[in-house]
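Lecture 7 notes: from sequence to structure.

We start with a single chain of 317 residues. Read the sequence below before looking at the structure.
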Amino acid sequence: MRAKKRNYYYLKKKKEAIKRLLTLVSLLFVLVGVVIVMFLMHWNPFKGFSASWLSSVVKDEAPKVINRGESLIKEELSKSSEGEDEQNFKGSVIFRIGIMSDTHGATENIKEALAQMQLDGVDLVVHLGDFTAGGDLNQLKEAYDALESSGMPYRVVPGDHDFNWIPDHSYSNFEKYFGRAGSSVVADKNVVVIMYENATDTTEESIDWLKTTLSKYSDTSAPILFFSAKPLYSPYFKAKEDARGADVVSLLIDKGVMYAFAGDTHVYAQYKDLSGRLNMVTVGALGEYKNPLPQWVLVNIYSSGDIEVKPKPLVDF
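Now the structure, written as tokens:
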């Protein structure tokens, strides 16, 4: 009986010792985890956390992104009016461009955006393609009628969704209303607008045209702005990039082009090319197809040469 009692107490003490050991091991793991977090985040117990180490790694590995999507739109909308000194430095607005893209048959959105552009005093309307889902003749006609009825000058390029499939795969429906589906230039004393057709990617012929065009305006003092259906480069949508976008970017940088605007992604974003020298903007979508935030973009050109880009959502935040 006494032997059994001794064994009982021995087993009980052994279990308690094992339990205490497991508790100590658990606490040790927690402590090691805290130390690791402190090291990675550069934590100072008196000043709190600092993610400078992590930020530096991200900065080294990723292209510089100014902002994107709704966050940038909200930031722009929440900004207070510019100070008098800054406004005087920029001078006055000498030209305004209203950009829309990827309307996909949303004719009422086109009309609403055009009405807003008129109130904002837009001098030139630009559409970066994808008027339709598949070259629908009625949607093209409605978009054409809306643009014509606005009375504002406009320029367009076709998108990859503007091909018609019947009777053949071509731009015949698009060209019935908007003329030849090709690149063009709008030159004004205040700005040079290059409309670049790349819905099916850049060709050697397109490169030659761009070289000739850029050389023609090499002596202009007006800012040169580049517009295309597909982005030349995108840190977010690689599949959407022009296959020869890097070649085009190189030409634009060499000739001092300030901005390259594009459609197709359905997401508003501002960022730089990989060299950090060319400002790039994808303008989002005005239509509601695969897009929760219909919007257009206002570009203000100042007498100082400064460029201001403002997203203009059709919905209120």
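The chain has two domains: 2-59, 66-313. Keep this in mind for problem set 3.
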